Amino acid sequence: MKSNDDKIKREIGLRIQTLRKQSGMTAADLQSATGIGLSTLQNYEAGLRHPPIKVIQKIAKVLKAPAAYIACLSDEQFQPEKCESPSLSGLVTIDNDLTSPAGTKASLAIDRGILKSRDINPSSLSVIYSQDELMAPTIQPGSQVVIDKSVNAITHTGIYALEDEHGSTILRHCRVVPGDNTVMLSTQRKAKENTDFIPLEDISRYRVIGRVVSVVNWL
């Protein structure tokens, strides 16, 4: 056991010395950076003393090496590279709208940069769930539909979330018909049966919840 301990001490000392030299540091430089006595450092490098874990961590930080490598718990000399991933601070979480039957908060998050590029205010977004297949294949039943609640009038062609006179939430293609003073509401499936031309003065029977800006279709 003692022979094995001596072997580990020598290996730790060799790793500290090698890393120090690779960093272009003298023993005095390492002493200054860590606050560890010069003679103590020399004893570590010579394999005469086993440095405590806190000391190993301090040396590892200065030499920019994994503490586990110096302690002979790993043979990986270099710190693993961090994979690039979206910053959590760059994501905005979108809540369910009250019209959702789920009754819980949505776990949907969108990158703020994407919203900014489309001039969409994150605070105006909500999620509702598609209830039928009338807007398929664009919007499947059960899809999470992201709506911009700041849009509360039909002014441009697009898909809108509407509340009808019965209080139900529906999704419809909407288009203002130029020169006709009407708004066309239609679906993708069974479009012939579900296309209505509503005079502008009567469109108020529908409450515009918001305009659809994105759809998450789950397989």
UniProtKB/TrEMBL annotation:
CDD domains assigned: HTH_XRE, Peptidase_S24_S26
Pfam family membership, one: HTH_3
Alphabetical keyword list: DNA-binding, Transcription, Transcription regulation
Stretch forming the signal peptide: none
Annotated SUPFAM superfamilies: lambda repressor-like DNA-binding domains, LexA/Signal peptidase
Domain HTH cro/C1-type: 16-70
Protein name as it appears in the record: Helix-turn-helix domain-containing protein
